[in-house]
Write a structure and sequence with these properties.
Blueprint (H helix, E strand, L loop, with lengths): L10 E3 L6 H12 L6 E3 L3 H7 L4 E4 L2 H9 L3 E5 L19 E3 L7
Length: 106
C-alpha cells in the first residue's frame, strides 16, 4: 500500500552492524527492501530526519522518543507477552497509538 502511494519503506535497527550483510539480505528477502534502506544505528532520529520520514513503527520507549524528536508520527508495536525483555518498554508512555496485532493483547 505505501509503495502505491509513493512512499519508501526503510528499516532502522539499533543492533550492532555485526554480520550486517546477512541481516540486510534477510530483510530484503522478507520485506523486499533494498539493502541500502536498512540502517544499523542508535541514531534513529537522524535517519528519520534525513529520509524525511512521515511514519515510524517501533516497540521501545526510545523508538517512540526518537520518532518524536524527528517530528515523525510514531506507532508502537506491542511485544509478545512471552518476550523476556521488558526494559525500555512502557506502551502508551508518550500517548502514542499502539498496534495490538498479537493474540492475547487488548
Amino acid at each position: 500500500v505505501v509503495k502505491a502511494l509513493g512512499y519508501t519503506t526503510i528499516v532502522i535497527t539499533s543492533r550492532p552492524d555485526i554480520k550486517g550483510e546477512i541481516f540486510r539480505e534477510n530483510v530484503k528477502k522478507i520485506y523486499g527492501n533494498k539493502p541500502d534502506y536498512v540502517y544499523m544505528t542508535k541514531e534513529k532520529s537522524a535517519i528519520l530526519k534525513e529520509r524525511k520520514s512521515v511514519l515510524f513503527f517501533g516497540d521501545s520507549d526510545s523508538d517512540i522518543k526518537e520518532s518524536r524528536e524527528a517530528n515523525v508520527w510514531a506507532i508502537r508495536i506491542r511485544r509478545s507477552d512471552d518476550d523476556p525483555y521488558r526494559g525500555n518498554y512502557n506502551p502508551g508512555k508518550y500517548g502514542e497509538w499502539i498496534l495490538p496485532f498479537l493474540d492475547g493483547h487488548d
